[in-house]
Amino acid sequence: MEPNIAISMTMYLIISNIFLYSFASEAPVHEDSKLVNPNDYFGSGINTSDLPQPGVGVSLNIIDANKIPALKSSSMSIVRGDFDPLGGVPIHIHPHSNELVVGLKGSIHVGFLVPCSLEQPTCKSQHVTKILNPGDVFIIPEGRIHYLQNMDRNASATAFTIFSNIDFFIPPLIGRTIFAADPPVDDRIIENSFRLDKTAIEDVKMKFN
Ligand SMILES: *[C@@H]1O[C@H](CO)[C@@H](O)[C@H](O)[C@H]1NC(C)=O
Ligand SMILES: *[C@@H]1O[C@H](CO)[C@@H](O)[C@H](O)[C@H]1NC(C)=O
């Protein structure tokens, strides 16, 4: 073997081992069969939701690495959402997570928006939307503005959402982020961004504060 190649291969082995061991040392759960604790892989309680979100008519049950330690090394989490009649998860974004929505009960309107490029400032964004009935599945790509909404006035609805990330968090809702800021975002900036007049802006700000 040429010395250069031998050196490269040795370097490669050292570097790949450093990578392997640095990941292994971060792994929360021992894969050594004698040390595996079944409870690190197990969770329960997703038969119900108990975390009502103020003002939006949805209760959540989040099963992430806080409840199942093995999820730390799996890049996944699952959330159950129970929607009141007309309840929904308002427009928001998960910057680092795809979201797989599985309809379980009732019907849920889901959708995400694909914006135009900057070169076409007057074109319309594409609205990708479906109504999910029990057994239907919809994927929301990471980084897309999206929503989930029960449009039924009389019936509640339920969905499971599976996230491709361990650090699931209740996402900042775009409306609240903009209209309930401290210090407030200047009306002139909101007017420029959303083409709302001052009265409408003040009205919306009041509803969020
Ligand atoms: C959910 O399941 C648990 C058992 O894991 C049970 O004790 C509880 O009563 C169930 N709750 C509902 C609302 O079905
Ligand atoms: C919802 O409930 C209202 C009042 O009880 C009733 O008039 C209406 O027909 C119901 N709508 C549906 C879709 O069931």
TrEMBL record:
<keyword id="KW-0479">Metal-binding</keyword>
<feature type="binding site">
    <location>
        <position position="99"/>
    </location>
    <ligand>
        <name>oxalate</name>
    </ligand>
</feature>
<dbReference type="InterPro" id="IPR006045">
    <property type="entry name" value="Cupin_1"/>
</dbReference>
<dbReference type="InterPro" id="IPR019780">
    <property type="entry name" value="Germin_Mn-BS"/>
</dbReference>
<keyword id="KW-0052">Apoplast</keyword>
<comment type="similarity">
    <text>Belongs to the germin family.</text>
</comment>
<dbReference type="GO" id="GO:0048046">
    <property type="term" value="C:apoplast"/>
</dbReference>
<dbReference type="InterPro" id="IPR011051">
    <property type="entry name" value="RmlC_Cupin_sf"/>
</dbReference>
<feature type="binding site">
    <location>
        <position position="92"/>
    </location>
    <ligand>
        <name>Mn(2+)</name>
    </ligand>
</feature>
<feature type="binding site">
    <location>
        <position position="99"/>
    </location>
    <ligand>
        <name>Mn(2+)</name>
    </ligand>
</feature>
<feature type="binding site">
    <location>
        <position position="94"/>
    </location>
    <ligand>
        <name>oxalate</name>
    </ligand>
</feature>
<feature type="signal peptide">
    <location>
        <begin position="1"/>
        <end position="24"/>
    </location>
</feature>
<feature type="domain" description="Cupin type-1">
    <location>
        <begin position="49"/>
        <end position="202"/>
    </location>
</feature>
<dbReference type="GO" id="GO:0030145">
    <property type="term" value="F:manganese ion binding"/>
</dbReference>
<dbReference type="Pfam" id="PF00190">
    <property type="entry name" value="Cupin_1"/>
</dbReference>
<dbReference type="InterPro" id="IPR014710">
    <property type="entry name" value="RmlC-like_jellyroll"/>
</dbReference>
<keyword id="KW-1015">Disulfide bond</keyword>
<dbReference type="InterPro" id="IPR001929">
    <property type="entry name" value="Germin"/>
</dbReference>
<keyword id="KW-0464">Manganese</keyword>
<protein>
    <recommendedName>
        <fullName>Cupin type-1 domain-containing protein</fullName>
    </recommendedName>
</protein>
<feature type="binding site">
    <location>
        <position position="94"/>
    </location>
    <ligand>
        <name>Mn(2+)</name>
    </ligand>
</feature>
<keyword id="KW-0964">Secreted</keyword>
<keyword id="KW-0732">Signal</keyword>
<feature type="binding site">
    <location>
        <position position="146"/>
    </location>
    <ligand>
        <name>Mn(2+)</name>
    </ligand>
</feature>
